[in-house]
Design brief:
By secondary structure, the chain is an alpha/beta fold. The protein has nine helices and 15 strands. The strands form two sheets. The chain has a nine-stranded mixed beta sheet. A hairpin with a 6-residue loop joins β8 and β9. The protein is globular. The relative contact order is 0.16.
Length: 326
């Protein structure tokens, strides 16, 4: 097998420290060689805890490390594009947390960055490479439930902490950006199409102004998808797909566990998938694409299209009308 891809981590976000880094360290394709924080002590502590060779007190220092080939960017949403641009300019490929940008216009600037630098840029939708989703898509594409006509999804958690970055609207906080993006990307992927128009309904926090309860209706040529996401409800998640001849229910669609099997329901049949880590799979496949010069699992264009749907839902919530995708 080829030499492992050498990775640097921008920031000490919880998802990086608890999920992504440990998973990628188990991968045969990834080596985490550096981590950076604006607080050097935080970077040094994380490096010691996770056995990472180098710690930096600024993101720019890590980007100057010539041994780093690719970076994982789990910074707050408003820093996704700026530091993805800086990383690519420094000759690093980028795996950037979702949502890749604050809006589709900002996301589209990454096309020029990719063309200019030759670096790969991918949005970190780890669900898109999980075996339970690959099988769900195969079942739908092979007509197992008949023509897919309707999708419904739900994703929620409760977070009213004023200090939490997800409750700061100016930094890209709110339910739609944080978790509504999941049922959107899944719906577009399963229909293998873009919605023609969308309808969005939003309830906002009176203090934070973030959307705390959002429902979206996505109108596709083949059928419809509806979802609700919330940052003020009890934790729950589910995705269900309906055809004339059957239905598929994905029981833990987004936060798939890495310590026990996952399951989907095909009508009354339970299909079980062996224990795996979706973050390890994500890192492995992106790294393998780099090493073998193959297509990356999720193209940058897909991330831009997902942002365009989010933009349209925000517009619709303001106009109270159907909005077309721009």
């Amino acid at each position: 097998m080829s030499e492992k891809v050498r990775w640097g981590i921008l920031g000490t976000a919880k998802i990086a420290l608890t999920k992504v880094i440990p998973a990628m360290q188990r991968s045969a394709w990834c080596e985490i060689v550096a981590i950076a924080s604006r607080d050097l002590a935080k970077a040094q502590h994380a490096a010691a805890e996770l056995n990472i060779a180098r710690a930096y007190g600024s993101y720019e220092e890590l980007l100057r490390d010539e041994s780093v080939e690719a970076v994982y960017n789990p910074l707050p949403n408003h820093l996704h594009v700026p530091y993805t641009i800086k990383a690519a300019a420094a000759g690093k490929h980028v795996l950037c947390e979702k949502p890749i940008a604050l809006n589709s216009e900002e996301a589209r600037t990454l096309l020029d960055v990719r063309a200019r630098t030759g670096m790969r840029i991918q949005e970190a939708f780890m669900v898109r490479t999980h075996p339970q989703w690959l099988e769900t898509r195969r079942l739908i594409q092979t007509g197992r439930i008949g023509a897919l006509k309707s999708i419904t999804g739900f994703f929620s958690y409760f977070n009213a902490d004023p200090a939490n970055i997800r409750n700061h609207v100016q930094f890209g906080g709110g339910a739609l950006m944080d978790i509504g993006c999941y049922p959107i990307t899944i719906s577009r992927w399963m229909f293998a199409a873009e919605p023609r128009r969308v309808l969005g309904m939003i309830e906002r926090d009176p203090v934070f102004n973030t959307d705390t309860l959002t429902t979206g209706v996505l109108d596709f040529a083949q059928g419809q998808s509806t979802f609700t996401c919330s940052t003020r409800l009890a934790p729950y998640q589910r995705m269900i797909f309906f055809g004339a001849e059957g239905r598929i229910e994905v029981l833990i669609p987004f936060n798939a566990p890495n310590d026990r099997p996952t399951q989907i329901l095909l009508d009354s049949e339970t299909i079980e998938f062996p224990v795996c880590d979706q973050y390890e799979i994500q890192g492995s496949l992106f790294s393998q694409a780099l090493r073998e010069n193959q297509e990356q699992p999720i193209p940058l264009e897909d991330a831009i299209s997902n942002m365009a749907v989010i933009d349209a839902l925000f517009r619709s919530a303001t106009t109270s009308e159907w909005e077309e995708i721009q």
